[in-house]
Design goal:
This protein is mostly helical and 185 residues long. It is 64% helix and 0% strand.
């Protein structure tokens, strides 16, 4: 497809417009050409609208962008930026160390075979907002002890420990109650 606006613009060479033209020329999965009419019919818009998208004279709204991504079986962020989040290393995406990610993978892969419910429990733990609130309290008390007198340090450590201990006692009590009632593991 050529730049039919007659004016070479940055919009024509924008990542989205260039990617759309490329995908229409060769669908990323099938390799087949997609006509403006085909994509327009899928999007329920006029072919002229698709033409404007492909030359960068117009950009789709969020709903249309998601439908275009669906049509080509890619993510919307890939259409807009060229980056695939699935290719970003988990530790980079989450800000965790590689060692942490490896340990989570070990849990997922059943490394701890004596505790088969560990993956489910870890998932529940990390999805529980109260866990993060308890950690926040523990971090607060741990930070309070820095540079403080010995007695105050011990008091802060005690508070930090209690914050986590209280959370875990309640967490395990909740899991036990769910098991007794036939709920989730």
């Amino acid at each position: 497809m050529a730049n039919t606006s007659g004016i070479y613009s940055e919009r024509y060479t924008s990542h989205f417009a260039a990617t759309l033209r490329s995908f229409m020329e060769h669908h990323p999965e099938t390799g087949e050409r997609t006509t403006q009419r085909q994509l327009a019919d899928f999007l329920h818009v006029r072919p002229q609208t698709v033409s404007l998208y492909s030359i960068g004279e117009s950009i789709p709204n969020c709903e249309q962008l998601l439908k275009i991504a669906e049509y080509f079986n890619v993510t919307a962020d890939f259409l807009m930026t060229g980056r695939r989040t699935e290719n970003v290393a988990a530790h980079e995406l989450l800000g965790l160390s590689e060692n942490t990610i490896q340990n989570i993978k070990l849990v997922k892969d059943g490394y701890f075979e004596d505790t088969p419910g560990m993956h489910t429990m870890l998932d529940r733990l990390l999805s529980d907002k109260d866990f993060y609130k308890a950690m926040e309290k523990a971090v607060h008390w741990n930070n309070e002890k820095i540079g403080a007198a010995d007695e105050w340090q011990r008091f802060c450590e005690w508070n930090a420990t209690n914050a986590m201990q209280d959370f875990f006692l309640n967490f395990f009590a909740m899991l036990a109650a769910e098991r007794e009632n036939g709920g989730a593991e």
